[in-house]
Amino acid sequence: MSDVVFILGAGASKACGIPLMSEFLQVSYDLLKDNRVQDVSSEFEAVFDGIWSLESVYSRSSLDLDNIESVFNAFEVARMLDAIPGYSGHDVDKLIMSLKCLISRTIEKTLKMPMVSESGFVDPHHELAKVISEIQDRHRTTAVITFNYDPLVEHALSNLGLVPEYFLEPHKPPEDPLDLDETPVRDPLHVPVLKLHGSLTWGQCRGCGKIVPSTSWTIHNGTFTPPPWFQHKCGGMVEIPYIVPPTIYKTQYYAVLSSVWAQAAKVLSEAESVCIIGYSLPAIDTFFPYLFALSTIQIRMLRRIMFINPDEAAAERFKRLLGPRSERKFVRYGYPFEYKDTFSNIRYLLLPKEETKDLRL
Ligand SMILES: [Zn+2]
Fold it and tell me: How far apart are the CA of 237 and the centre of ligand 1, in A?
């Protein structure tokens, strides 16, 4: 089980320069106009042409074509329905590849790892990794569920000697379920990092179809260098990145990401505390509300849900998802995530009792 589950949304990466979903395309467009993505400018232009083609059809509908997730969804649905005028199925496949390139390159160009400044500005992932390390040192377990494509949380965990586990392969159950000795004991250094929407550092093997994490990416001097394509042990080439849109139309992704989603459901169903940082429950995400609601439906041990987000409307949406029984366990913190106070509060709430033992003289 995981005593504490952290859920990270786009707001957690905002402090490291990565734009929110609603401003992402504008930032991509500015990078193109400023000639900062010259080697992939044709991919960027293809995406904006695709959006303008969609606009001609859907201008009166409620599609939010300024939002990158909404556009990602629209392209994916268009692939199924053959619904962009002038685009064949093959053209839409190429369009989606261009979009993934735009997402990857925009994150690469905007990601900056902030150092601690006099104003207390810190990388929230580093503070989070410290809290996780402290919790696991006390023989309690943690897990991270993230919607973010960037590898910031695994980078921060690795820097502290922790080992992120992606659960891309289903974990084998003990051979004899009645043999208690075979119950797997979690290594105190291992932390499940469950990336529900894939990752810029994962790829899909063109040979066997498996999702394979790369180990050759770096974040050095605050700059992220994504991995190149590489060869899987089966001989197939691994195509980087592997990222998925936030809709419920995930059937084509199910076969390869089901073990990640199953593990996310498992850690949520066993959690004592859930801490949600910078996730706004966007209307477009029609999948996560089901995952959360179904995983926590019979949860008895859940003591608290901490919701860290300056957006009050996001907190209201989350409360509605919880229903009346869990609502009283809900606490919202409106502090901006980049300030140390947020993590001092998390630390105080999650590690209060152990500290007092040392005060007895
Ligand atoms: Zn392979």
Answer: 7
